[in-house]
Amino acid sequence: xxxxxxxxxxxxxxxxxxxxxxxxxxxxxxxxxxxxxxxxxxxxxxxxxxxxxxxxxxxxxxxxxxxxxxxxxxxxxxxxxxxxxxxxxxxxxxxxxxxxxxxxxxxxxxxxxxxxxxxxxxxxxxxxxxxxxxxxxxxxxxxxxxxxxxxxxxxxxxxxxxxxxxxxxxxxxxxxxxxxxxxxxxxxxxxxxxxxxxxxxxxxxxxxxxxxxxxxxxxxxxxxxxxxxxxxxxxxxxxxxxxxxxxxxxxxxxxxxxxxxxxxxxxxxxxxxxxxxxxxxxxxxxxxxxxxxxxxxxx
Length: 299
Prior knowledge:
Layout: E1 27-28, E2 31-32, E3 51-57, E4 60-65, H1 73-85, E5 91-95, H2 101-109, E6 114-119, H3 122-134, E7 141-145, E8 160-165, H4 181-187, H5 194-204, E9 205-216, H6 220-229, E10 232-241, E11 250-257, E12 270-271, E13 275-276, H7 286-294
Parallel strand pairs: 5-6, 5-8, 6-7, 8-9, 10-12, 10-13
Antiparallel strand pairs: 1-2, 3-4, 9-11, 10-11
């Protein structure tokens, strides 16, 4: 059973084989790396002690703390799901963006889109800004530091075709919080819960826009209540099974504003077949291998 606190990206522990890889090579273990080569690849990166520079999408890299918050399967799936169901998004908002993993995958997939991210932790913001520079995203990728709930950091008039969120799952005091501030904020609702994410997303969605997020399957009623209270409709959801034959631990959700939908759709949700991450013998499931290819990661 995969721990629910956060489902660590399965390549994270193997990231050393990707660290500071010379980007002149177009292939990695038989896989052709897609997408543009970013400007950061032209010279050795400045990776401080206690940090790593890891592959995330194609030639894109992300700075992370070795013992802090590191990007997870939850983040990757959120970016994939949102950009799949809002494939023509021109403006994207990523709430509680952390080190930037969700937003940067979205920026890699939708290369014409402008991305705004909001994160409260200064340490995470600093890492995200370095990653954005490395990946050549500074002309269309804006990183704002602050609390997205304050009504100021995202102006009332701003609208987005796609809002993304990988919110924390647990109220404070309901579990072991960990020993690093980044990890605690990733797992526990220190600066807002799913209700806050839904409320802010609904406020800033453009007409016909999509809010995509991930949340524990066992807490699905919390999300559904938050969506309804914010005037959102869960149009589709996809459970995630981390190993074949096990129950789903998390679910991906795609929501639209009720005012943008026919009344007949206000109480109707399409339940997609579960997405399985690994087969019973531990191998990467063929469909998940295809998902990884879609976000520029080796299968």
